[in-house]
Amino acid sequence: MECALDVSSASALALPCLDLSKRDMSELPEMEGCEHLRCLYLEGNRLSQLPPSLFSSCPHLQWLDLRNNRLTHLPQFIQRFRDLKTLLLQGNRLTALPTQLGEHIPASVLIWKQTL
């Protein structure tokens, strides 16, 4: 099921946070025009990958909640989020994290617990 949410209302309102949690999404909606976003909540969906456009659409994210999805890996572009302070990853199918991720995000804010 794709998300039918129009995020343009968040863009028009210049909201700093957008909560798309528990919407049964398997893909992210187009996030164009969301450069102002600082927090993005995607917990409890069915996301198996993150689109490359996420970085260019939301370059100033400070909080990214990806808990309880179906991610098996994080794309290399995740390291480009220079402002990211918190990355929540519990409840995914990750077996490793990109090594470059720790160069930009302090290990203390990476919250990852492998569930078997």
TrEMBL record:
The keyword Repeat applies. The keyword Transmembrane does not apply. InterPro entries: Leu-rich_rpt, Leu-rich_rpt_typical-subtyp, LRR_dom_sf, LRR_domain-containing. GO terms for cellular component: cytoplasm. Keywords: Leucine-rich repeat, Repeat. This is Leucine-rich repeat-containing protein 27. It comes from Geodia barretti.
